């Protein structure tokens, strides 16, 4: 049974202990929710985008610790970012922001990128998930 | 930071009295128990004494105990040893769906080699039903392997009843049906008597009863023959080759004696802590589910599913606060394996993923319980705030 907390970096554990930008925005103009179909991990992102910039970002997450940490890192990173830069964000940058992830746990960073891109896509099409 | 170890079903700290008993066998009494000289005789005497101590814990005769490297080896030796020797008599095994992986995996291995396996359900309370065992017995069944108590939820199985069933089958003239039970979690917590249980084989592990890792034992009832899985030496009466790990065996013996002597005291203590824990957790947290029959279970263990959150996240939150627990679920490479034991109870995937095992030990205190409840309540609240499955946290920024 179990897992090994020691295999996670201090930055990672800080995201878990003090997740940034938790919740949902009351005045979001873009919302996305993505689920990893294999493991059921879920990330929900709500964004307020004005003048081509992400003014505010909030996240909710269900799943294994990497999913929670990547959600937190994502929501923190993208706040204040212009859309052009946000769409260019990569899985690798999320992994770096949580202080590294083993190959087996990188799917969490992929889910974070996916929910961000869906969020921006939804905003472009003016639809709310 | 305060540290609280609540994972005694995974392993236990070595009792200082056990360390004291084994130390001379790592230093001046270093002999090989197979040697003829004085050093060897000293080691042999120590192994024999330990064998009596371990036998006494389960009401067996000393010569019915074979020392192994641990519970996994004991289970392998029991299951493969019987099945491989009895192959000509039948190729059907009965087991349960909640066995420890060392039993489940050994049986899976045999299944791949052509054995038929019936895996008994445990319903929503985590307990095998005797009538299911009875109904599963076929003319070619050679082995029934059902654990004495489960390692994740602590439920106690109707082992003595299964033993009686096997005896009745024998009385009807059936000679080639054997009964094995994995008692790794039960030993030192339940009073075990192999006569009452009626088993032919019973597995034990040392490190679950405050002895070091790397040692275990298999009870093999007098007259039961099995195929050794490790050959190339005469040790353990040709049933398990290899130089005896004398110091470890001495430790196991000492720990078995202490476990037997202190069983009631330890059980009362851990039951009190466990019950206090469960009662406070119930008051502090909603949307929780206790897993497994709450009456028919080991006294030191509590398994709880916390809705809306995932066990590994909770485990790491607790770990960051110095609290050590276990979860049966594992997530890797984007694939999730929710605890098969919790799934076997019919729980949905969310509950199976949110299950945590708290297992108390003789050295835990009431203050430990209070600390854990505080830390746990905060961690659960914080994870639920994060969870999209929980009520939404709408903020205005």
Describe the structure.
With 129 residues, chain A is an alpha+beta fold. Chain A has a single domain, classed as Sufe protein. Chain: A, CATH 3.90.1010.10. Chain A is built from five helices and four strands. In chain A, strands 2-3-4 form a three-stranded antiparallel β-sheet, covered by helices on one side. Chain A is globular, with a radius of gyration of 14 Å. Chain B is an alpha/beta fold. Chain B is 41% helix and 15% strand. Chain B contains 13 helices and 15 strands. Chain B has a seven-stranded mixed β-sheet with strand order 2-8-7-6-5-3-4, with helices on both faces. Chain B has a three-stranded antiparallel β-sheet with strand order 9-10-14. Chain B is globular, with a radius of gyration of 22 Å. The model of chain B has no long low-confidence stretch (mean pLDDT 95). The chains are: A alpha+beta (129), B alpha/beta (397). Chains A and B meet through helix 1, strand 1, strand 3, strand 4 and helix 2 of A and helix 10, strand 12, helix 13 and strand 15 of B.
